[in-house]
Amino acid sequence: MLSQRNLQRKRRETQQKRPRPGHPRPTVVLLHTAQRFSPTEVLSIFDRAGGFLAPDQVRAQLHPSPDRRSAYSYLLRLSRQGLLERNQAGRGRLAYRLTDRGRQRLEYLREKSNKDPSA
To answer: Which of 11, 26, 47, 68 would you call most buried, defined as having the most Cβ atoms within 10 angstroms of its Cβ?
Structure first.
């Protein structure tokens, strides 16, 4: 059972949350900086390396560097598409490398960007 003091506090809190007539609610603006990186950029990193790379090594080469979760998720997505080979390099350690399909996709993306300068 709520004490009288707690009951009064709850009432005040609910009254403060409700907009008063003629007073609009304050606008909350959330600034989100979308970190985007292209498949060409990521696949090129693996092409230059020529072997397995840890996700953090890839992150270090992307500018601006994406947050860790985004980088791991993106590399997992590319591996599920067959563009990267995923390898467990020990307990809790992942490594990826470019597959033949990934190399073909990289060539296609490079050709596409050379033909269409707006892409």
So the answer is: 47
> pTM, whole model, 2 decimals?
0.65
Model confidence at 31, in pLDDT bands (50, 70, 90)?
very low
Instruction: List phi, psi (to 5°) of 72.
Output: -60, -45
> What CATH number belongs to 39-115?
1.10.10.10
Q: 56: which residues sit within 8 A by CB, 6+ positions away?
A: 68, 71
DSSP annotation of 53 reads B
Average pLDDT of the residues in 5-26: 63
DSSP 79-93: HHTTSEEEEE-STT-
Helix (H) or strand (E) holding 94: strand 94-98
The amino acid at residue 67 is D
- Say how far apart CA 1 and CA 116 lie, in whole Å: 70
Q: What is the mean pLDDT of residues 73-102?
A: 91
Q: How confident is the model at residue 29 (pLDDT cuts 50, 70, 90)?
A: very low
Sorted by where each begins, the domain ranges of the chain are 39-115
